[in-house]
Amino acid sequence: SKKLKLHSSYVDTSPFPDFDRPTRREVYEVYELLKKSHPGLHTTRRPSGSSHNGVPNVIDGLISVILSQNTSGRNSSAAKSSLDNAFGRHNFSAIALAPRADVVDAIKHGGLANKKAATIQNLLASIKEKHGDYSLQHLTETLPDRRLSDDAIMEELISYDGVGPKTASCVLFTLGRDSFAVDTHIYRLCRVLGWIPNTADRVLAQAHLDLKVPAELKYGLHILLIQHGRTCSGCKKSGSGTGCILKSYLKERIAPTSEGGTGTTSGP
């Protein structure tokens, strides 16, 4: 599929090989700046979705991420709780085989219920067809001879309709893997920072940034940028009159143009 071809093209090489931003130093500077600006925010990865003996349930995580799309955390959590109450936690066969209207009704709190219900049921049907069961727990294997690479997990996840790179990347977080998921907030802020070319769409931006952001900062920076994007009015509109720490940061240093990197040197 197009998703898989695109992913395989940029596993080790950025779609923008001549665009050298962000540098390692820039990433660390922005991470520390945002961490000070948003104290108390958990930037250490914690499993999302339910788990058994500390092992996250992959399908449960996928469903949670799908329900979180285009809505608030409160609404998506309400939709997930309602889904679990209606069908039982991890009762994926019940969800898959239920009338579409019943699934829509269960997740209506999260918005776009018709679309999300179809995505979830089609996903479950595809998993059952491919693996003979409603399970993706093979992706959680940790034994050296059975542990899959991050790339192999990403390929498995995006092979399903309705699962794009951002959703797959969020699921990688739950598996303790390092990945940099790019949502609308992160995409917008990275454009402000000049970390991606103007021609980059969100998918290519993620492919580029996943190679540029140090592994140890991927989850934390993801969380911090989303929080800043949600709460800072100063970076949402130019001329709003409200300050933004990222815009102040850019003014205080010699910022490279959006067409290439001529700024800071590599950092720590």
Main attributes of the structure:
single chain; 268 residues; mainly alpha; two-stranded antiparallel sheet; disordered C terminus
The rounded Rg comes to: 19 Å
Overall pLDDT level:
89
Derived from helix and strand composition plus strand pairing, the structural class reads: mainly alpha
Strand content: under 5%
Number of strands: 2
Helix content: 40-55%
Order of strands across the widest beta sheet? Answer: 1-2
Q: CA-to-CA gap between the ends?
A: 39 Å
SSE string, helices as H and strands as E? HHEEHHHHHHHHHHH
Count of helical regions: 13
Shape: globular
Q: How can the largest sheet be summarized? A: 2 strands, antiparallel
Low-confidence stretches: 257-268
Helix-strand blueprint:
Layout: H1 2-9, H2 24-37, E1 51-52, E2 55-56, H3 58-68, H4 73-87, H5 92-97, H6 100-106, H7 113-131, H8 150-158, H9 165-174, H10 184-193, H11 202-212, H12 218-231, H13 245-251
Antiparallel strand pairs: 1-2
Helix pairs in contact: 2-12, 3-4, 3-7, 3-9, 6-7, 8-9, 10-12
Would you give an account of this structure?
- The radius of gyration is 19 Å and the shape is globular.
- By secondary structure, the protein is mainly alpha-helical.
- 53% of the residues lie in helices and 1% in strands.
- A two-stranded antiparallel ribbon has the order 1-2.
- The longest helix is centred in the middle third of the chain and has 19 residues, at 113-131.
- 34% of the residues are buried.
- The protein has helices at 2-9, 24-37, 58-68, 73-87, 92-97, 100-106, 113-131, 150-158, 165-174, 184-193, 202-212, 218-231, 245-251, and strands spanning 51-52, 55-56.
- α3 packs across α9 (165-174) and α6 packs across α7.
- A hairpin with a 2-residue loop joins β1 and β2.
